[in-house]
Amino acid sequence: MNVLIESSRSGEPQVWRQQVEQRVRLVLQRLQGQVQQARISLRDINGPKGGVDKQCQIMLTTAGHGRLVIIAKAEDAQGALNQALQRATHTLARLWQRKRRPMRQVSLA
């Protein structure tokens, strides 16, 4: 799985980027066969004003489901990332289960 990290803050510490990549790989580990690429974008929407303004967008390129885009907002970047990852794994698991479920048979009685 290819993981790309984009951030609106220039000069983002390399250690922080590595932590984000490790977190993404850990959370998506069990769905790794489905996800070909994960692009994580972290932005501060309204600058240093404060509030719920950190946005995390995760774009997953998957095998069989196309592209999946998840957006989450929180007070800090870590919270936004965690929310987005939780939504992404939930959505992928649901799509995977739906695909595996057999079609219902319609009885013509």
Automatic annotation (TrEMBL):
InterPro entries named in the record: RHF-like
Name by which UniProt lists this protein: HPF/RaiA family ribosome-associated protein
Species for this entry: Malikia spinosa
